[in-house]
Structure formats: C-alpha cells, structure tokens
Amino acid sequence: MRKMLTATLILSSFASPLMASECGQVTIADMNWNSATIIANIDKFILTHGFGCDVDLVPGETTPTGTSMIEKGKPDIAPEMWSNAIKPVLDKGVRDGLLAYAGHSLSEGGEEGFWVPAYMVEKDPTLATIAGIKANSKLFTHPEDPEKFAFVGCPSGWNCAISSQNLFDALGLGDVGFDVIDPGSSAGLTGSIAKANDREEPWFGYYWAPTAVLGKYDMVKVDFGSGIDADEFSNCTTREECRDPKPTMYPASPVDTLVTAAFAERAPEIVTYLTQRSFKNAEMNKLLAWMEDNQADGDYAMEHFFLENESKWSAWLTPAVAQKVKQAISEL
C-alpha cells in the first residue's frame, strides 16, 4: 500500500506541477524530540525558500498529531512519525483517503539493540557477538556485587524495559552471571555509556538510535546470531506476560513522513521532495551530537546541516529548487 501511494504521488508530480505562487500556507508538526525538530526546520526552510510556501511550525506529539491530521486535516506534514506507536489509526486514515505516507524520514528505521563500545571489539572481535559476551562476562564488573556481571538495561517503566528483560532471559545472560542494572532514567543510561567511553572501560547494555550519545561514541550492536523474528518480537518479546521468550534481534521501527491526502493532492512536487528527504541513523546521530554539544535549537541545527551537507540536501531537490535554497543559505 505504501509503495503504491508513494508511486502515485511521485507520478502525479509530473502531471500537476506546483508553481511557487500557488503553494500558500503550510503547517508542519514540530515534534517534541530533537531529530524531529531538526527535520521540521529543514522542511520549513526548503518549503519557504525552494517552493515559496508560507510555513508555520506547530507543536506536535505522536498521537495528537496523527489524530489531528485525520480529524481536522492539520497539520499538513508530520516529518518524523514513529508509525508503530499508532499504526492502526494511521493505516485506517490511509484507507479512508485522509492520509498518505511520503517516504521514510529515517531510511533504516529506529534502531534498538544491546551494545558494547567499539574499543572493546577492536581488542576482541568476538565481543560483537552474544557468544563472545557470554564467554567474557567477567569483563563487565557489577557495581555492587563482585559475584555478578553488569548488563545495563532500559529504565523501569519504559516499554523497552520489557523487551530488554525478555531478551536478557532468552539469551541466557542470567545463566552466566549477568544481572540487569536499572539506570533509573534516560540520563542515567546515557551517563553510564559516556562514563565508560571516557574511561575506556567495559560496558554492555541496551540502547537505541538515532541518539546524540551514539553520535559522540563509537558503539557496536551485538549480534545475537538469531536474525529477526518479527512475530516473536511482536507476540512475546514486547509483552510482559511472555513466559518463554526466544532470541531475536530488534526489528527496525518504521519512521515515516506523513502528509494529509488534501496536501498531497495540492502539492505533489513537495511530496516528491519529502519522499527523497531521508537520513541514515549514523548521519542523524552525528547531527544530534553536534546539536547537544552546541546547545543548539532546531533552527540553529538546521543551519549547520545546510552549510555542511550541500551534496546531501541538494540531491533531494530539482536543480532549480536547489539553487533557490542555496541562494537563501548564502544569505543566512
């Protein structure tokens, strides 16, 4: 369905070109996390200067934004929608002709896994595998119990605490002496990674991308040797009542750009741009790390992106639109 919708939108751009003077008012959801606010500001700049739109950023959150797009037809664009969170609602909106998917804002999807620092893998490549981790469990000293070994889990109360605990059990980590350490918060989890990397100490635990910490520190996702079993993950790994979890790597979480059907119909050239505009996780990790290091907001991070990545953003646009954007950047 998504491929058919995207193909239809792309083809329609050749049949019904949008003139800059016809763009008019456009609303873009500025979600309340950093990667989304960067993309929203990038879209605003390109639509304003490349397509001549009058753009407003409006505050957004996943469920309220998706619901508003269906019920009220606004905002026109949600640049970074983690679709799994409200997938039944969004898919119904597409079936009812109210919404359309316009490409993947994160081409690899959201990424989760168990990680170790790259400097550990450089010394011993087997540590990139769960078998190597289990064989070298004594490297990961426990902060309180010298008889156990540390696996830093997801903060309790988060959904990922369920999946990480189930995978901990499925992989038999407790059988070789590992104990789950609750970091208490996102800051606690991030801080434990930063502390270990700054001191080049062993670390093993759960994390996700895109995130600033994975842009600052080179981390390796541990291979469980299981491949991805999407049914197992959906029906057991993510469920608290799962009694016999099996090993599976985390499936990627779709991260899409969503538009209202009305906007797709009136602005097919912009939808074509949105289908081209996408980031790899490593690229977004680096951008988020720069944003954090420079205490930058989305607008400032947007300027940095445009100034440092012309070959990337220009490939999303036609030569004529890219030239307009380039001219506007030169005047920043």
TrEMBL record:
User: Which sequence ranges are marked TM in the entry?
Assistant: none
- Give a yes or no for keyword Oxidoreductase in this entry: no
Record's keyword terms, sorted: Signal
**Residue span of the signal peptide, if any?**
1-20
Is rRNA-binding included in the keywords of this UniProt record?
Answer: no
Q: Which residues form the ABC-type glycine betaine transport system substrate-binding domain?
A: 25-305
Molecular functions (GO terms): transmembrane transporter activity
InterPro entries given in the database record: ABC_Gly_betaine_transp_sub-bd
Do you know which SUPFAM superfamilies this protein is assigned to? Periplasmic binding protein-like II
- CC per GO annotation: ATP-binding cassette (ABC) transporter complex
Taken from the record, one Pfam family name reads OpuAC
Descriptive protein name: ABC transporter substrate-binding protein
